[in-house]
């Protein structure tokens, strides 16, 4: 997991990473991370405006998560869901930087 040096990655999230053996790399200025955050926010707000959650925030968040995790990533040439499945099989995920 790569992120900026935000405070949200220093407490509960850091503990979660340690407990699940997730390597966390801090990137000084990462426009790609900010772009991904903007994309997630865009999907979330679009679903909310379309009233896709029936007024329930949790429903909109789950739908956002499903859309984002199944959208093909340009550097991975696959979706995050596919990349996690590949990692679970013990295979490396190849980036096309």
How would you describe the overall organization of this protein?
The chain is mainly alpha-helical and 97 residues long. It contains four helices and two strands; from the N terminus they run E-H-E-H-H-H. It has helices at residues 12-19, 31-49, 57-69, 80-88; strands spanning 2-3, 25-26. A two-stranded parallel ribbon has the order 1-2. The two termini are 16 Å apart. The model has no long low-confidence stretch (mean pLDDT 84).
What is the distance, rounded to the nearest whole angstrom, between the alpha carbons of the first and last residues?
16 Å
Order of helices and strands: EHEHHH
Radius of gyration based on Cα positions = 15 Å
Query: Could you give the order of strands across the largest sheet?
Result: 1-2
Q: What is the number of beta strands?
A: 2
Flag low-confidence runs. Answer: none
Alpha-beta classification = mainly alpha
Mean pLDDT: 84
- Please report the number of helical segments: 4
Q: List the quaternary state of the chains.
A: single chain
Portion of residues within helices = 40-55%
Beta-strand residue percentage:
under 5%
Major pleated sheet: 2 strands, parallel
- Global shape: globular
């Amino acid at each position: 997991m790569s992120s900026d040096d935000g405070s949200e990655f220093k407490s509960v999230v850091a503990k979660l990473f340690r407990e699940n053996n997730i390597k966390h790399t801090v990137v000084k200025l990462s426009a790609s991370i900010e772009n991904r955050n903007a994309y997630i926010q865009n999907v979330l707000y679009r679903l909310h405006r379309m009233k896709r959650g029936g007024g329930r925030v949790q429903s909109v968040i789950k739908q956002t998560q499903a859309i984002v995790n199944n959208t093909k990533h340009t550097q991975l040439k696959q979706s995050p869901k596919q990349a996690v499945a590949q990692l679970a099989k013990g295979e490396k995920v190849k980036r096309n930087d």
